[in-house]
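Hi L.,

As promised, N-acetyltransferase:
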Amino acid sequence: MEIRPFTASDAAAVFEVHRRAFDGRTDESRIVQRVHDADEAVVSLVAVVDGRVVGHVLFSPTTVDGHGEHVELVGLGPVGVLPEHQNAGVGSSLIRRGLAICRAAGADAVVLLGDPGYYARFGFERASDYGLGNEFGADEAFVVRPLHDGALDGVDGVVTFRPAFREATE
């Protein structure tokens, strides 16, 4: 398996990966498409097996009310893997590589809305324990992964995702 940066020529394959990974729903595919169209992707990676895109992960900027330039939080998601390639480490590899790139680029922490049990393996914890909420009102499913010691010291507030996350479900 090769993991490499997303390119524009991957767009159709990535749309299909997310559509199939999410049981035919296209909300996640539209989020990826809109974030890329707005040139707002921080990290966008594809997993390729035998020349075919089988997985994708997106990291995009978020903001925390009242903290502006003081903290750089990145939102993880969506992450999708074709059903026939799930449970083979593709998603985990994409997430780990993306987290490493975000850390190397100077991001302070990564947030996401997802299954807290699944994401705990990557070091994610309940965001509300750090004083962080989100614009969608989720609690248990909203998790954060600090990328260095003290990353979230003195940071609290409501995290806002890119407009594509709201637009995709409208």
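The chain has a mean pLDDT of 94.

Thanks again for sending the construct details.

K.
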